[in-house]
Specification:
The protein is α+β, with helices and mostly antiparallel strands. It is built from 14 helices and ten strands. It has two domains: 184 residues, no CATH class; 185 residues, no CATH class. The radius of gyration is 33 Å and the shape is elongated.
Length: 397
């Protein structure tokens, strides 16, 4: 008997017992679907987490960690901004550096009419705006003229609009920062994603920020290299340059956010593997259900097996028939489970705000694994069927 004939017989047997076949496949469907959902959401969450940590490409965060001698010499050193304007100009001259993103942040009280709120007030340079791509929901973004002219204009976060303006349109309204009037020209889009936390923020051109708060230094500096290959070189040169300019040894250092993201990615991969393994237990349970129902099928079809063997069917042919039937049952369940997992992961990812990464390797693995389950858990029933005595089988009632 050919493979196709065995396949047709298997489909005919499953069709004859529709409800039983569906209930048996349900365990495989849920198992395969659960594994795909966990892997897809895990990989999507990992990709989103990495992108949130690293930000735009080819960037390195610089930080300042004073030595013990510096701290003893100046106990208030942590209250001072570590980067000066001449530092930014010097970093921009490095051949490997594409641009230097600089900003200063301070906690401040903002007032509109009779209402006040505590905000994070950030002065940014134009490179910051280019790299971080602050997206405006209402009004307009900061322009080159705003930066060059030090205009008293600001962007505010969506959360601040809700708190200070009670959801009303704030464009053109005047707010007060450090007793200085500032015009609101834009409202930023509401943040989405894994690390999206609504916070109350105000963004100003750095020249404006400097005038309001009386400080010309920067608290955060990020350098962007021309290419990924130059990233490490740019970081080393930048740290060496700043340490030389400030007469320090290793106080100025760099943080490669991509390395941190890789470490975080390894943690998420382990968590995905663990949770995926737990979800895989349902596949094992489904396989037991397949074995159970195939044993019932062998018992019900004892006379049929006896007739086939009396007509010349070999033990191997009977074994193959029941193995193919078991594989067909799990294969159909696996395919349906793939569609279930794919659809569910897309829905979950849509509401969670991160991509659903269903790779072809996962889909292929789901199909092959379900077929393997059919073989493994179908061997015992198939072997039992092939060992039946033809004469005793024909007498079976």
């Amino acid at each position: 008997m050919s493979f196709m004939e065995n396949m047709l017989m298997a489909l005919s047997s499953l069709k004859a017992h529709k409800l039983r076949s569906i209930l048996t496949m349900l365990g495989i469907i849920i198992g395969v679907g659960a594994v795909i959902i966990v892997v897809a959401i895990g990989q999507g969450g990992e990709a989103m987490l990495k992108s949130q940590i690293t930000g735009p490409g080819n960037t390195i965060e610089m930080f300042y960690q004073p030595s013990d001698e510096e701290i003893r010499a100046n106990p208030n050193i942590f209250q001072q901004a570590p980067f000066k304007q001449e530092d930014i100009r010097a970093l921009e001259q490095l051949p490997e550096v594409k641009q230097v993103v600089a900003s200063s942040t301070t906690l401040s009280a903002v007032r509109y009419q009779q209402d006040t709120a505590d905000v994070s007030s950030t002065g940014i340079n134009q490179a910051y705006l280019k790299l971080n791509q602050l997206k405006v929901e209402k009004g307009r973004n900061l322009s080159t003229a705003d930066f060059l002219g030090g205009r008293r204009v600001a962007l505010i976060s969506n959360k601040l609009q809700e708190e200070l303006f009670k959801g009303k349109n704030p464009i053109g309204k005047i707010i007060t920062l450090a007793n200085q009037p500032i015009e609101v020209i834009g409202v930023l889009e509401k943040p989405t994603g894994l690390l999206a936390f609504g916070s109350m923020e105000v963004y100003l051109p750095f020249q404006t920020w400097k005038i309001i708060y009386g400080s010309s230094d920067f608290t955060q500096v990020t350098i962007q290299a021309d290419s990924a290959e130059q990233l490490q070189t740019a970081g080393k040169k930048a740290a060496k340059l700043l340490n030389r300019m400030h007469n320090t040894e290793k106080s100025y250092q760099v943080i490669n956010m991509e390395e941190i993201a890789q470490g975080v990615g390894q943690v998420t991969q382990i968590m995905t593997l663990i949770i995926g393994s737990i979800a895989g237990i349902s596949l094992f349970v489904g396989g037991i259900g397949v074995m159970n129902i195939m044993l019932v099928s062998v018992t019900e079809r004892t006379r049929e097996i006896g007739i086939r063997m009396a007509l010349g069917a070999t033990r191997g042919q009977v074994l193959t028939q029941f193995l193919i039937e078991s594989m067909t049952l799990t294969l159909i369940g696996g395919i349906l489970g793939i569609f279930l997992g794919w659809g569910t992961s897309e829905i979950v990812s849509f509401f969670a705000g991160w991509p659903s990464l269903v790779s072809w390797q996962v889909v292929l693995g789901g199909v092959l694994f379900s077929m393997v389950i059919g073989v493994v858990f179908g061997i015992l029933p198939a072997n039992k069927a092939s060992k039946l005595d033809p004469i005793e089988s024909l007498r079976y009632e």
